[in-house]
Structures are given as C-alpha cells and as structure tokens.
Amino acid sequence: GQLSDALAGLQLSMTYTWTEATARAGVFAGRDLPLYSRQVGSFGARYAIDRWTFNADLFAQSGQRSPGTPTEGAAYVTAEDPTGRLGDIPGYSTLAVRAGYDFGPALHDLKLAIGVKNVLDRRYYTRSTDNNGGKFVGQPRTVYLQGTIGF
C-alpha cells in the first residue's frame, strides 16, 4: 500500500561495539587500558526518492581513560593534568545530515550535495600521550558542499 511505497527508499543501519580491555598485571592491574572507549555506536538513516537522497547519521562513544605510565608506584590518573595528556576523557556524540541530488546521464552523472557535520556543535576532544601529546578539540559544526561527475 501507500506506506510500503513511501518506505521503499529507506535504508537504516546501526553498529554497536562493547569492549572491556583491562591491564592484567602491574600497578594498573584490573584498570582500563588507555585511550579506548568501552562503548561505540552509530545509527544511520538514508532516504532516496526520485533523484534526491537524504542522510542522517548519529555517532556516539563512551569516555576514555588516559591514566599515565604504569611504572612502579605510579598513580592511575583520572583528573586532568596541566599538560592535557592525562585524565579521563568524556564521551560524546555527533549528528551529521546530508542532502544530495543526482542530475543523471544528461549532465555526465553530476551529483551535488550539501551537508552539515556535528549539527548540534557539540564540543568534544581526544587526547594523545606521544611527542605531540595533549588535548585535541574535535571537529566543530562544519558545512560542506560535495560534487562528483562521471567521466
């Protein structure tokens, strides 16, 4: 009927990963390993009708740990240190949307789209403990144009 016709162009996708990685020995035994999220998930929806395509994608991940080096007598750091290298990292989620149009063979399969990443402009960050260590701000709200052409 009418409902099934309207849903013909709808595609949904979902991912979820749960990981528990802990140190087995040493001063951090039983504690989370650094720089991974226990939970990571995504949900996507794509709807195509005629020459139009619309997408919405949600991504989320739980917090991470950056506790320091597990040397003898070391403390498992959870509070942020002055360098930004150590401490817990909050989880975050982002939403992205996109709309595209396919002009078809008459225009060499030209496809144009506009999209927005991090629609809600959520502030999030990651950490690194290498030579360039510290706190790195994630991508802010970003508007983009996209084009492809067949040849």
Structural features, described:
There is one protein chain. The chain is mainly beta and 151 residues long. The chain has one domain. It has one helix and eight strands, in the order αββββββββ. The longest helix has 5 residues, at 2-6.
Main β sheet profile = 6 strands, antiparallel
Terminal CA distance reads 39 Å
Into which percent range does the helicity of residues fall? under 10%
- In total, the number of domains comes to 1
In which order are the strands of the major sheet placed? 1-2-3-4-5-8
Low-confidence stretches: none
The rough form would be described as elongated
What is the H/E string? HEEEEEEEE
Overall number of strands: 8
Radius of gyration: 22 Å
Give me the number of helical elements.
1
Oligomeric state of the chains present here: single chain
Structural class, from secondary structure content?
mainly beta
Instruction: Report mean pLDDT, rounded to a whole number.
Output: 94
Beta percentage is 35-45%
Which helices and strands, and how do they pair?
Layout: H1 2-6, E1 10-18, E2 39-49, E3 52-61, E4 92-102, E5 111-117, E6 125-128, E7 134-137, E8 142-148
Antiparallel strand pairs: 1-2, 2-3, 3-4, 4-5, 5-8, 6-7
Keywords:
mainly beta, two-stranded antiparallel ribbon, single chain, 6-stranded antiparallel sheet, 1 helix, 151 residues, 8 strands
